[in-house]
Amino acid sequence: MASSQEISDFLRDVERRAFKQTVYAVREEQAALDIVQDSMLKLAEKYADKPVAEYPMLFQRILQNTMRDFWRRQKVRNLWTTLLSSFGAGQDGEEDHDPLETIDVEDASENPMAQLERSQTMKVIEKAIEKLPARQREAFILRYWEDMDVAETARSMGCSQGSVKTHCSRAVHTLAATLEKQGLGARAIAHLGVES
């Protein structure tokens, strides 16, 4: 079980990287800040009884789910804004104007197909990561999701830098092979910012 200080330290360490990741995903600084803060609160409230070693994976999952919730809300909000703004008389004062005919589905939200693909890819990646051996999974998450350098990862894992490199290399190759079988391969690894 993590202490209050350990939770605070983890959140302080992850905040900047999580914000950068979220801004890149949602392209709106204020929304990204809200998403990161919500994710941090959820981790602290719901998972305080978990060991600190589990926090990186838990936090990434919470962050991804919070981003998905944001995109869903945006989609619904954009759709209803479009619908409501379409009510009233049609062009040239037509009273039998159908507002549904004026909806531009592509403009109703930010590329739903890209969102769906990103969501599906993340699910496949998360399942593949869960199947890695524990040390490979830990090294992979710390290096590529937590953006730690080799030395920081080695200190965190209590092993040598050479071991970190070996664990990461094996993890990346295993993930690439697993994802390649599902037709994702290098594209999915690139989605994580990892060089195979």
Give a verbal description of the structure.
- The protein is mainly alpha-helical and 196 residues long.
- It has 2 domains: 1-86, no CATH class; 111-196, Winged helix-like DNA-binding domain superfamily/Winged helix DNA-binding domain (Arc Repressor Mutant, subunit A), CATH 1.10.10.10.
- The protein is 73% helix and 0% strand.
- The chain contains 9 helices and no strands.
- The radius of gyration is 21 Å and the shape is globular.
- The protein starts with a helix and ends in a 5-residue tail after the last helix.
The fraction of residues assigned to DSSP E strands is under 5%
- Quaternary structure of the protein: single chain
- Label the structural class: mainly alpha
Query: Quick one: overall form?
Result: globular
**Low-pLDDT windows of residues:** 83-91, 95-109
Helical percent range? over 70%
SSE string, helices as H and strands as E: HHHHHHHHH
Task: Let me know the largest β-sheet.
Answer: none
Radius of gyration: 21 Å
Counted by DSSP, the helix tally is 9
How many extended strands? 0
Domain module count: 2
Mean pLDDT: 76
Distance between the termini: 35 Å
How are the elements arranged and paired?
Blueprint: H1 4-26, H2 29-46, H3 55-86, H4 105-108, H5 112-130, H6 134-145, H7 150-157, H8 161-181, H9 185-191
